[in-house]
Amino acid sequence: MLKSIIYKEWIKIRWAVIVSFLVVFITLIYVQLEIRHYIELMTAFSNWLYIIQRKMLYYEIFKYFPLIIGGVISILQFVPEMSKHRMRLSYHLPISEKKLLLSMTSVGFSLLIVNLAIIVGGLVGISYIYYPAEIVQSLLITILPWLLGGIGVYFLTSTIILEPSWIYRIILMIITFAFMKLLFMESGYNEYQFSIWKYLLIIVFFPLMVLFPGHRFRKGIN
Amino acid sequence: MLNKISRYVIILLIIVVAAIYLPNFYWMVFQKSVRSPSIYYSPIKDDFVYRQWNRLTGSKYYDADGNTITDKEFRIALPFYYYRDLAKWGELPDSVKTIKFDHDELRKEMQMLRINADDFHDPLIQLWPLIESKPKYAKLSMPNEFFRITDRIEFFDPDSNKVKKEMSEMFTNSMKEKGFKFPDKFIFGNPTTRKSFDEGYFIVDNDNYTYHLKKIEGKPFCVKTTIPRNLDIKRIFIYEDTRKEFYGLLFTNSNDVYLITYNNYELIKAPLEDYNPDKMKFVMIADPLFRTFNFSDDEKSTSIVTDRNYNLIDKFEISGTPKENTITGKIAKTIFPFKIDTYSRNTEYINFDIKINYLLGLIGILISLIIFFIISRKKQFNYKENWFDIVIIALTGVYGLITVLIIKPGYWD
After folding, report:
1. B97, burial (CB in 10 Å: exposed 0-12, middle 13-18, buried 19+)
2. Are A212 and A172 in contact (CB under 8 A)?
3. For a Cys-Cys bond, which of A28, B1, B226, B321 suits A122, CB 3.0-4.6 Å?
4. Which residues of B touch A51 (CB under 8 A)?
5. What is the spatial order of strands in the sheet that B246-252 belongs to?
6. B105 and B335 in contact (C-beta within 8 Å)?
7. What is the dihedral of CA A167, A91, A209, A105, to 10 degrees?
8. Contact assignment for A195 to B351 by CB distance below 8 Å
9. How many Cα atoms sit within 13 Å of B199 on the Cβ side?
10. What is the mean pLDDT of each run of 10 residues along chain A (222 residues)?
């Protein structure tokens, strides 16, 4: 049963995942070319100085990638289920609705994580060619809230789509927007260094969020 | 059970978002613009004068007794700051006290330093350029490498992204010779070429001794300073100024401020009281006659004036009312039992600080609970299944009340 659920989810999102891999890959190449270009034009010293003192984020192009990927995966997984109430059929499968929802989201979540891992790995790899460890470390601290934003938006979007009532959906959309805004306030590096664990502490619970709308759907709330 | 927890996760998220945004919306509507006054010491009046800005009345000027003075009187009282205006009006005095008035001399004698709370809380990658202190040309220029300090000092060549071995060894040995204990605790400098000369870095070693490191003609210049090791240094700000009176200001964690003088790094303690670097703006002004230290937050603005040898002459204080203590502030505290601050002008970091309004907040929580019981009675709320909703309201007041009423409990199995 579980195997077929996982397979079905994979079919729904495989194209998006492949396309996002490609886009991430191309953007990584772009970032590297841009660093080389900067160094060529303004010398490596000025480039470092710009990054350290002016706080230029040379990887900022990736800022909203996790958010978009998380949102797209979620939409592709759950919008088809909700149109024409197909989800009702899924809820009739011989598996509890909790297990069903959690296994569906864990497929999307895993692929999102793979995608984020490629972004992080690629950026770290490129950075080590041109920059010392201090700058690479600051990269990791700086992009962490963006990655959490992607993870958060995946579960929030899924919750919104699975929610049967439009009033709840609109409330959740506002909350999603407001919460996401909090994770993208950076204008320089390391700004979330001391507070990011508190945001993480909230997002850790997000995977459970999809259960409540599923429960409401099964109880026939509109 | 999991379904219930799922609902509480949604509720938790909404409460967090509400506790961040709702108090901000409240203050967007009700906040009145209040600015700290700018206080100066007048060598003409031998007393303080100050300027207070207000959105409705604009700038208003006062003497130390609180009497209004005109803009012109204010400027005439401060010839060192407004000598250009005075010259235009033909009001320039020939001399002020013992000082003969001379534009060029005056400009050399003036120095103004501003340090805000966020200068102490600003993320900085610990890679530093060591500028040549005896440049070949008139202007300073940036070097070709950055240094870091670990168990030695390492100079990085940005072009190859590799350590420059020879240079690193030369500087490491020189520092070790002077007794520097690696690794460092702090590095303080002013790495910019927009200054007239360079004083390099003040580096606190692992034994809390402060060293002065410069690069002179490519060679290390390292001095173990006489700065006491038990000072508990918070931050040193270096200001290369042509007056060459002091290298910069040293702030300690017990909120003392010292000047590091050019006289063999001897420290002079600024006679400040109640200064809190984490919350206050700090300005130091040196003019030909006096040294003025101003520091302020919403609660209080203080100005301390000393003679050129830093002996206290006079002190002036103006209290303000921070928005939290106004009636609108107290109403806010009653409505919102706590709030979460993500932004503060006192830091460059993004926070997630929970601020609890203990006493007044409890009143708000009680009101929220009463409202909830009235509403839930009518709606036949299932207390046995959803007792935790009440706990939430008891902990989060109005945020919990709104959220629990919107995100209603389901028909649990």
Report:
1. exposed
2. no
3. A28
4. 125
5. B233-238, B246-252, B257-261, B267-269
6. no
7. -120
8. yes
9. 24
10. 88 94 97 96 95 96 97 94 78 83 94 97 97 96 97 97 92 97 95 96 96 86 64
CA–CA dist B296, B317 (Å, integer): 9
Structural contact between residues A145 and A196, judged by C-beta atoms closer than 8 angstroms: yes
Find out whether B232 and B254 touch, Cβ atoms under 8 Å: yes
**CA–CA gap between residue A75 and residue A2 (Å, rounded):** 21
CB contact under 8 A, B410 and A185: no
Provide, as residue numbers in chain A, all residues whose Cβ is less than 8 Å from the Cβ of B124: 52
Q: Taking the complete model, does pTM exceed 0.90, yes or no?
A: yes
Question: Does the CB of A138 have a partner CB in chain B at under 8 Å?
Answer: yes
- Residue reference for tokens 């360079």: B198
Classify each residue of B350-363 as buried b or exposed e, where b means 16 or more C-beta atoms within 10 Å of its C-beta: bbbeeeebeebbee
pLDDT along chain B (413 residues), means of 10: 92 97 95 86 94 88 93 93 88 83 82 95 96 93 95 95 96 96 96 94 96 96 96 96 94 96 96 95 94 94 95 94 89 95 94 93 94 86 86 95 89 67
Q: Output the CA–CA distances (angstroms, integers) from residue A143 to A136, A140, A188, A208, in the order listed.
A: 11, 6, 11, 24
Identity of the residue in B16, B343, B410 whose CB atom sits nearest the CB atom of A219: B410
Pair of tokens at residue B126:
């610990």
